[in-house]
Design brief:
single chain, alpha+beta, two-stranded antiparallel sheet, Complement Module, domain 1
């Protein structure tokens, strides 16, 4: 009897994101990962996200943690109009 080993290419979900810090995450299809938002970002959708079969998160990466800070130029513009 011969044993044949077959390796399948498994696509991982990306974990190096500017807005998200994944916590002890196995970023493989079918897995769920806990995360926290990096400073300046906030999650409105919870603290867990799942990796889909195509190697993409179930939500767009910009929706996992959304920016909460107003850019400096907008802050200055708002201050100008509030006077």
């Amino acid at each position: 009897m011969h044993v044949i080993h077959i390796c399948l290419l498994v696509t991982r979900c990306p974990t190096e994101l500017p807005n998200v810090k994944f916590l002890d995450c196995p970023p493989y299809p079918g897995q769920s990962c806990d995360f926290e938002c990096k400073p300046g970002y906030r999650s409105y959708l919870g603290k867990t996200v799942s990796c889909l079969s195509g190697g993409q998160w179930e939500l767009p990466v910009t929706a996992i943690c959304e920016g909460t800070q107003i850019p400096m130029y907008m802050h200055k513009l708002l201050m100008t109009f509030s006077k």
